[in-house]
Design brief:
There is one protein chain. Helix content is 76%, strand content 0%. With 246 residues, the protein is mostly helical. The protein has one domain. α1 runs parallel beside α7, α2 packs parallel to α7 and α5 packs antiparallel against α7. The longest helix is centred in the C-terminal third of the chain and has 64 residues. It starts with a helix and ends in a 32-residue tail after the last helix.
Length: 246
């Protein structure tokens, strides 16, 4: 039974290395895809907010919708959907804004769970491979102790086995570091997008309130507070912590 376990340990170190290399290839693919995704959807939210307020103040909602239609940014897409409910008032506008953000959350955060999980666990996978390698090295050491004539050659095998075992830990750390770095970068970008959507929504609601008061209407407060922000980060993600506003 013990011999079978030792044989499995001898093969397991190689399997762990192959697994880590495969995971690194997947993580690189996700990193490149997320980089292209966020780069193509960059937008100057401050300039967009100024443009939105200027067109709404001029009463040119149709022109504003035309302005937002070709933009690929998530903020523009969510705002365009919510502006279709502009005439229904601030409460309906805010609810559609929240719905638009919720509908796109999976798209925005695609791949981040994998990067976060890999960054947390790749070193442990590498350490497991190291443990298996050291087990094999100790088996070689026992063989060296039992054979005086072949002791030198077997001791060399022991040293090389330990060196190979440590490679697994090094590869695990090497796989984990870029995964954690880019997880934090992309998570921060999702927070910025959600904050931009919240800021744009608040600006539009303020304009709605101004117009309603200009018509002498009584404006009721929006149920559930202001437009959504990024302060509610999904739990279970490592790397960054976003503090809730007081």
């Amino acid at each position: 039974m013990m011999e079978k376990l030792l044989d499995i340990a001898g093969v397991g170190g190689t399997v762990v290395l192959v697994l880590l290399l495969a995971l690194s290839v997947i993580s690189i693919g996700i990193i490149l895809e997320r980089f292209v995704y966020f780069r193509r959807r960059r937008i100057d939210a401050v300039a967009l907010a100024g443009d939105v307020l200027a067109r709404l103040a001029a009463g040119d909602l149709c022109a504003l919708m035309q302005r937002l239609r070709p933009l690929r940014a998530v903020e523009a897409e969510v705002l365009r959907d919510a502006l279709a409910w502009y005439d229904a008032g601030p409460e309906a506008f805010t609810e559609i804004l929240k719905k638009g953000l919720a509908d796109r959350r999976r798209q925005i955060e695609s791949g981040l769970v994998f990067l976060g999980t890999l960054g947390n666990n790749a070193p442990f996978v590498g350490l497991f491979g190291t443990v298996l390698g050291i087990i094999v090295a100790f088996r070689e050491l026992s063989s060296a102790a039992a054979s005086v004539a072949g002791g030198t050659g077997n001791m060399n095998n022991v040293m090389s086995g330990i060196a190979e075992a440590l490679v697994s830990t090094a590869v695990g750390i090497l796989v984990a570091v870029p995964a954690v770095i880019f997880f934090n970068i992309f998570q921060k970008k999702t927070v910025v997008i959600e904050d931009n959507i919240g800021a744009l929504g608040n600006a539009v609601c303020a304009q709605m309130t101004r117009e309603a008061r200009g018509r002498g209407e009584v404006v009721a407060p929006v149920v559930g507070g202001s437009a959504p922000t990024a302060r509610d980060v999904p739990p279970g993600y490592p790397g960054i912590t976003v503090e809730a506003e007081a």
